[in-house]
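Quick log. Single chain, no ligands specified.
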Amino acid sequence: MSADTDSVPDVLGLDHTTVTGWGRTAPTAARLIRPQTYEEAVAAVRDCGARGGIPRGLGRAYGDAAQNAGGSVLDMTGLDRVHAIDADGGTVLCDAGVSLHRLMEVLLPLGWFVPVTPGTRYVTVGGAIGADIHGKNHHVSGSFSRHVLAFELLTADGEIRTVIPGTPLFDATAGGMGLTGVILTATIRLQPVETSLMSVDTERATDLDDLMARLAATDHRYRYSVAWIDLLARGAATGRAVLTRGDHAPLDALPARLRRNPLSFRTSRFPSAPSVLPEGLLTRTTVGLFNELWYRKAPRARSGQLQRLSAFFHPLDGVPHWNRVYGRGGFVQYQFVVGCGQEDALRRIVRHISERRCPSFLAVLKRFGESDPGWLSFPVPGWTLALDIPAGLPGLGAFLDELDEEVATAGGRVYLAKDARLRPELLAAMYPRLDEFRTLRAELDPHGVFTSDLSRRLGL
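-> predicted structure:
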């Protein structure tokens, strides 16, 4: 979890710079500190100043979770060592600043994969725990914290504590958005794999009901499942989608030429998006054309296609700074979940978005499995929809406020790691264990050493 910055110092030091989330919507200025050792991290926490500090990683939190206007931001990417790998037992001990990309490079040749990955591999381990990230396999594997065996946490008093699952501090930190302390190291349980390829099935769904029926009936057959959904389609086609599901390909599924090096980690990379793009590039017309082409080019049904890990999990990582395509105004990523039995609420929300003609070409629907222990962890059993919307869309704030009300009324919630605009009065309804989090945080950090734009906005 973190933010884009205009500049990052190479050594421990002070640098007042503008910090934004990946959505680039609400920049604020902060003192940037980049510790290179645990001792420097302790010193940084003790020297955060009156406005406190917040840890950050590689810049993929969409909103203001890792911003701290007028205070300090602790860039933890300088702590990036892999300390120990148990290649027999399938665990890794690493610094919190290590990226999932780096773990894949190191672990795949040994036959292991990260247990959970979101839509980008450029997330740090500390950010993965702080946001309790989820992926295409939540219905099977849960969120990231479920696979964390222990972590070391630097708390507001300058002490380093070993935290294990089943304790209040673990449950407050997993999904706690960096507000309980700075994660320094973590021990993670891994997923065994035979190859670095995926076996993928793809099919079209004609509308939202068809999509939900396919997911509910067959998701148990797949470890990974996700649907791209056309939110500009209306009428009988409302919610039409392309459903993509798969699992790690076994060795015997590979052709002979690929079996010689089955665990190689290969990625694709395209030119970076330009730093300046014309405003209004993503309109209803251009996105509508993209959505039509994307849906039509998808196979009606195809099974067993071999894909690289990067193509299946992280297609946008191949375009550095893809967030620039939304122009200077940036974009809002809105993600919510509603529980099982609230399918009518999901239908209403999708219909509202379709009628509003929100130009979103990155819209995905997934099913969540059992809830995870984090008090502010996002997933609950049910349906989650995420969409990107240009921030300059007229009336967007009021429209999303209406959606928030629908979500809260249905007993759902929005994802704090992607939020930059939720009204604080809805938070308690969405996160029933909020008071427990606030109580523990007040006891652990009575002087508010750890704080962020998100925490001030929502009263966390």
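The first helix runs from residue 38 to 46.
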